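Students often ask why we bother encoding 3D structure as a string. The short answer is that it lets us treat folding as translation between two languages. Here is a chain of 307 residues written in the first language.
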Amino acid sequence: MYRIKLNKNINQLLPAIATIGNFDGLHLGHLELFRQLNILSKQFNYRRIAITFEPLPQEYFSKKSQQQRLARLSLLRDKFNFLHKHDLVDELVVLHFNHNIANLDPGTFINNLLKSRLGIAHIAVGHDFKFGKDRSGTINDFVNHEIKIYSMPPFYVDEKRVSSSLIRDLASANLLNEVYKFLGHNITYTSRVVYGNQLGRKFNVPTINLSLGLNRPALWGIYIAYVYIDKIRYNAVASIGKNPTVSKIDSYKLEAHLLDVNLDLYGKIATIEILQFIREELKFDDLDSLFKQIQTDLQISRNYFMA
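And here it is in the second language, the structure alphabet:
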């Protein structure tokens, strides 16, 4: 477990209200939950805590069963940035989801972690929240252990229940307007700029490459994007996928070409905000065909920003 203080002025002796979840994408349903958490925080003079997991539980179990990893709407840095920007919590607690966490019974999770280590007196979660070994814990367990509970009902937009799984399905189809409707913002990925194969530089199309680790992005293809580095926004074309024309490594890649900019940005933290879908990722027969298509993608992007 590691704890990230977002509000250094908060009195750490105050009892806390917490919410627990993956918070993948931090969609409109999550925001309603945090709104209720903040109302209760002011009413009872609580510290505000968000508890999340890394890796996400689904990712941990999919690795054990050798299934495809969950498609991510956001990375951990994106969650931190969003919570901090909108002043939604005082502290972000990240639990390393492993065998020990997966096998904690509900009572031990509540007493040893929530009450003893974090001083939590009140929990705000969705009505169907499950936790602990084999998802055996329910909101009744909090009541039984003398923790107050706020249970949020399902949150709907256009008569559809807002959920990360719904948004992942829309993202996989590149229905970005629909994604925005339920997410409340564009999908962003934030990570550190690392060295790539520098092939784009040889063709006068240098790119920045973001480290994804084992995280599998929910989007897949070529996109018009903004890139934010050191509080400066750049117009860009982003590629999310596996670069099948030039790479034989089975790993996920996120890179972006900043339009009409050539800077040394290695080691910087960059945020890529996806704006519009251009095309699917394709495997080309040769590099000339690939970079001819890239020039077309760049022109589409320039036309977008000039409109």
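Translate back mentally: The chain has a mean pLDDT of 92. Keep this in mind for the problem set.
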